[in-house]
Design a protein that fits this description.
Blueprint: E1 12-16, H1 20-31, E2 36-40, H2 46-60, E3 67-70, E4 81-84, H3 96-117, E5 122-125, H4 130-141, E6 148-150, H5 153-168, E7 175-176, E8 179-180, E9 188-189, E10 195-196, E11 199-200, H6 207-218, H7 220-228, H8 235-249, E12 254-263, E13 269-280, E14 283-287, H9 294-313
Parallel strand pairs: 1-2, 1-4, 2-3, 4-5, 5-6
Antiparallel strand pairs: 7-10, 8-9, 10-11, 12-13, 13-14
Length: 314
């Protein structure tokens, strides 16, 4: 007798927020044939227009992934991954506390609406302030912490990697960087654990040069905002999220820096912040705990204290 073949369902990724990051991410996911994409936004017509444009572009490139633009949460049902990019960027005259309150309200609604329809999904949070919004998403969703992850470390490490390559005038492909901590001024690029084909950059660059590159990495997003004058980065952030989506959808068990829930690692508990994480189909499968020097651990705890202060404001 012929064996019964189970119905195959294509992976489905919902991207909430049809801004520059969300639109570019939808394009990357579909172009790599990772999953069908639902692009959701509250602005009438915007996600539909972007989706139609992407479909036409992919027709030219002989790509067949389904891309749906919608203002209806119902279209996000049964998503495997939900990426939350929705939120406001900080504007002139707006305090960090103002941004925190506004984006917290947005993230809370988005998570409640999407998880109700996709209870088995993995949440990837991109909205700033990243680490705090990831913690909020976890609380609101009711999901196990392993299924809630924040994107930042991949982006921050890539910026450090880029600046090192520019400084040494070599290929970035030969550089591996390590960045821990929160996605903000107190993030912790680790020169000691950042290498060029296994050679620590501390042996290739002066202390002054390294300090300059570390500071530039911490202000990497602000530098782009200042240069653009009206807008913020989206090519690199969307590429960073895409790497995480690919690692999860393809169950690759990749070790990438991401905001994950800590339960004693690095001496920290009940907080989401950037650490090396093994990513696969179950989400944050394992946290890799590096051996840090005393001063590095102290800096990591200072970053955590800043995140905790913002969580307390919620």
């Amino acid at each position: 007798m012929p064996t019964q073949v189970e119905d195959y369902r294509s992976p489905k990724v919902t991207v909430v927020g049809a801004g520059n990051v969300g639109g570019m991410l939808a394009q990357r996911i579909a172009k790599q044939n990772l999953a069908d994409v639902v692009l959701y936004d509250i602005v009438q017509g915007k996600p539909q227009g972007i989706a139609l444009d992407l479909l036409q572009a992919h027709t030219i490139s002989d790509l067949d992934r389904q891309i749906i633009g919608t203002n209806d949460y119902g279209d996000t049902k049964d998503s495997d991954i939900i990426v939350v990019t929705a939120g406001l960027p900080r504007k002139d005259g707006m305090s960090r506390n103002d941004l925190l309150r506004i984006n917290a309200s947005i993230v809370k609604e988005v998570v409640q609406q999407t998880i109700a329809l996709s209870p088995n999904a993995i949440l990837l949070i991109v909205t700033n302030p990243l680490d705090v919004m990831t913690y909020l998403a976890w609380q609101v969703s009711g999901l196990p912490p392993q299924r809630v992850i924040g994107m930042a470390g991949v982006l921050d490490a890539a910026r450090f990697q880029t600046f090192i390559a520019m400084e040494l005038k070599i290929s970035s492909a030969d550089i591996y960087t390590t960045v821990l901590g929160g996605h903000g001024d107190l993030m912790l690029p680790l020169p000691r654990l950042s290498t060029v084909n296994g050679v620590p950059i501390t042996e290739l660059l002066s202390q002054e040069a390294i300090a300059r590159l570390v500071e530039r990495t911490r202000n990497g997003g602000a530098e782009i905002v200042q240069l653009l004058q009206n807008g913020s980065a989206y090519f690199a952030p969307s590429a960073a999220v895409n790497v995480m989506v690919e690692a999860i959808i393809s169950d690759r068990h990749r070790v990438l820096p991401a905001a994950a829930y800590l339960t004693g690692e690095y001496g920290l508990r009940d907080i989401f912040m950037g650490v090396p994480v093994q990513l696969g189909r179950q989400g944050a499968e394992k946290i890799v705990e590096l051996k840090l020097l005393d001063e590095e651990l102290a800096a990591l705890h200072a970053s955590a204290a800043s995140i905790q202060a913002n969580i307390n404001l919620l």
